[in-house]
Amino acid sequence: MTTGKVPLETINLDETTTVKFEIWDTAGQERYKSLAPMYYRNANCAVVVYDITQASSLDKAKSWVKELQRQADPNIVIALAGNKSDLSARRAIDSEEAQTYASEAGLLFFETSAKTAFNVNELFTSIARQMPLEQLAANSRGRSSGSKQKGVDLTNPTPASNCSC
């Protein structure tokens, strides 16, 4: 898998607040580790994904979380996502272990399935609710005069309103 931009995810929090996530995927591969700061430098949020069927993947995820906590904006919202919940019969990482780690590290936590879309919308909604929307909305309105909708449009990212998740 290569690194790259994937489609936007749009979350409507309420009638007046829409958050559009611009998502960049590094696939967690070590060869992209040196490029990672380019993705998260001005990010408002990040999703660190591990595979619940591979014991070593949580350790790799912890390494990425540590990197984000050390290098990214101190206000970044970080979510830990245990993917492949549709393969729970092959589970190698207990949900409780990952939840405990996430709580101790101050992370949002979800188990998801990219295959079935289980909890994916809930993950992004939870992230959106944790983001400083008032500050981001002000930045978004400043770029598009006349806009009456409160929200974040990340299709034209600026350093203050870029979300690489």
TrEMBL record:
It holds the Pfam family Ras. Residues 155-165 have a biased composition (Polar residues). Residues 137-165 are annotated as: Disordered. GO terms for molecular function: GTP binding; GTPase activity. InterPro entries: P-loop_NTPase, Small_GTP-bd, Small_GTPase. Keywords: Nucleotide-binding. Gene3D superfamilies: P-loop containing nucleotide triphosphate hydrolases. This is 19100_t:CDS:1.
